[in-house]
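Hey,
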Amino acid sequence: MDEIDQFELLETKIDSLVSHVSALKREKESLAEKVGRQEERIADLTKEIEALKASRERARQKIVHLLDKIDRLGIP
């Protein structure tokens, strides 16, 4: 193999490597966007869960209060 063939082979391999690195960078950016969207979704769902827990606690307190009222009436 002469020197020119070796340079052409090296150039081909470098071009291939550059192309591969570029594809990996695009994939990384795409995955980072997906992770960001999923983190936002998790935050939204966490807020929703907390709101539901608070609502459930208010309902529980209301029931306890109503049961206390019934108890004070002396109804068995």
